Amino acid sequence: MKPVDEYFINQKEPYQSIMLYVRGLILNTLPEAEEKFSYKIPFYNCHNKPMVYLNILKGKDYVDVCFVQGILLEKKFPILRNDNKRKQVRSIQLKNLEDLDHENFIALLHEASHVLSHSKKAWFI
User: Fold this and answer.
1) Residue ranges of the YdhG-like domain (predicted)?
2) Segment (H or E) for 50
3) In this structure, which of 12, 41, 58, 76 has its CB flanked by the most CB atoms within 10 Å?
4) Is 64 helix (H, G, I), strand (E, B) or coil?
């Protein structure tokens, strides 16, 4: 079993269902996305650079869907938040699947991939 699969299996509900659903959306929307297991969490790379990762922050009650270049996307997608005082990462906090606007998330994935394809590097700050 791959480490990323083991990570998902070991999550408690509702986090497991949320993460598996988001994983499916990412991989179905962006066939070029490559799933990696880095820093003990799932990352999704596009154009050989990290684009989005899934995390459950200690002491929080949501799945944090984090966009590496979120600072470049937050004006067009105000759902992205900077709750943890991050320099460039912005995220969507999901407590349940109903919190996810499916159509907007698909558009966000496409835009994030497009922005990343024109970037020299993922981490620029």
Assistant:
1) 16-112
2) strand 49-55
3) 41
4) strand
